[in-house]
DNA sequence: CCAAAAGTGTTAGTGATACACCCATGT
DNA sequence: ACATGGGTGTATCACTAACACTTTTGG
């Protein structure tokens, strides 16, 4: 019996230069040669879908640590001109301090694009990206994923900026701090930031946060008995 | 190149006899012969994933109208002993008035099971079902999916019961009514229920509700340009 | 000393919760 | 007339949103 091909595509977000960015790679083969596309590739016969996504991501960025979560599966019969290809999309976040792009990627041309200055994308990748964006904004409201975009120690202003960049609107400083601190997810460190002006306290995640994060992840794929 | 097989599995919920039920079918072939499993089957080469789910569901229940939404894609290499099978799971709701089970299903033995009295399930279907249940409860909190389990016209008590059954806890009648009515999603009809006691007003969804529902659905697969 | 970012409290409004009795109908 | 489910209002509490000035540092 004829079978469809199965791939994973990854939408990897980060924040740099006060902008939300997504990683794209340039296609070197037809179809859509020389166009930009989401990183991804075929699922191996002996790896899980999560593993496939992780592997592809590492091949592109050389980075191992990141938040990764399955997003949605796209399977329109005509989405790839070469034939039936079903793709499981994954949503990933990384903090800009972690990323040393192109470590392993001499072969592949990969680049960060600001999400409000995107090139034309191959296949239905524009649609997939839009969906990922909605999901990112949506998840921000009820989870702590934004923390994934920050380094281990960060200032409250940095955290607030991350929210503002993703929601694309400004937030009230006092209310933001009140709320974040009341959640008990982060705690002061003894360190402070250095810079031109008044130093800011650095915060880090509490153990509670780690627990919550794991809870949210495990929530995605429930344990059975 | 070797390819995995791709299937869809459907978790169809309904409420009857004041219980949340799920539709299962009995397997007639190995592996797991004579065990109960989620309805589903292979994705055709020329249908979308949604179409495949709809088709399978109709083959099992003979019913066309139902809420259907993609849930999660499971792809552990060992989940099917016959070889690599990736399954895209779908989450479906139907109201018990609509269902005339086994219309088309003389060949397949299909049955409703109360979710707190389930048989052992084939493959990883227990895990998939658990995930669907979590999602159902979760979605109930911020969407109007519960309405899909009710007939077009319904009493507030029926609606409340649906919530109580799914959450498995009792709710305050006055608060429930206040909240539901304040949402403006339902409106009174001129009809009332008949029965042994005081007749209850029947309600139906407003246009607003339809809009919200469509919004939520389209939210799942965003439009691109 | 000044520019720039850090830090901090109060008030008003809105939504959530807890709670108990009367009403309309069929038998 | 009574049993059964239908229907209603108020008070408290918690959370959200709006809003402006002082503090600390480097240059």
Shape of chain A: elongated
Helix/strand order of chain A, N-terminal first: EEEEHEEEHHHEEH
Number of helices of chain A: 5
Q: What is the gyration radius of chain A calculated from CA atoms?
A: 19 Å
Q: Give the N-terminus to C-terminus distance of chain A in angstroms.
A: 34 Å
Say how many strands of chain A there are: 9
SSE-based structural type of chain A: alpha+beta
Q: State the major sheet of chain A.
A: 7 strands, mixed
Describe the protein's architecture and organization.
Two copies of one chain form a homodimer. Chain A has 225 residues and is of the alpha+beta class. Chain A is 30% helix and 26% strand. Chain A is built from five helices and nine strands, in the order ββββαβββαααββα. In chain A, the strands form two sheets. In chain A, strands 1, 2, 3, 4, 5, 6 and 7 form a seven-stranded mixed beta sheet that branches. In chain A, strands 8-9 form a two-stranded antiparallel ribbon. In chain A, β8 and β9 form a beta hairpin. The longest helix of chain A has 18 residues. The first copy, chain A, is elongated, with a radius of gyration of 19 Å. At the A-B interface, β5 and α2 of A face β5 and α2 of B. Chain B binds a DNA duplex (27 and 27 nucleotides) through α4.
């Amino acid at each position: 019996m004829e079978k469809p091909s199965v791939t994973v595509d990854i939408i990897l977000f980060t924040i740099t230069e006060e902008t939300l960015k997504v990683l794209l790679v340039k296609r070197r083969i037809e179809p859509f040669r020389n166009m930009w596309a989401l990183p991804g590739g075929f699922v191996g016969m002996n790896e899980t879908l999560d593993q496939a996504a992780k592997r592809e991501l590492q091949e592109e960025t050389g980075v191992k640590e990141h938040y990764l979560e399955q997003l949605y599966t796209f399977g329109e019969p005509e989405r790839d001109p070469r034939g039936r290809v079903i793709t499981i999309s994954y949503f990933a976040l990384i903090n800009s301090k972690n990323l040393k792009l192109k470590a392993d990627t001499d072969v592949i041309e990969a680049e960060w694009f600001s999400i409000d200055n995107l090139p034309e994308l191959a296949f239905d990748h524009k649609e997939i990206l839009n969906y990922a964006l909605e999901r990112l904004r949506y998840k921000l409201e009820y989870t702590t994923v934004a923390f994934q975009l920050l380094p281990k120690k960060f200032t409250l202003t940095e955290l607030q900026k991350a929210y503002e960049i993703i929601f694309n609107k400004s937030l009230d400083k006092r209310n933001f701090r009140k709320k974040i601190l009341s959640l008990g997810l982060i705690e002061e460190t003894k360190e402070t930031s250095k810079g031109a002006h008044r130093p800011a306290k650095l915060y880090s995640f509490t153990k509670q946060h780690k627990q919550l994060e794991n809870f949210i992840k495990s929530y995605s794929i429930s344990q059975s008995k």
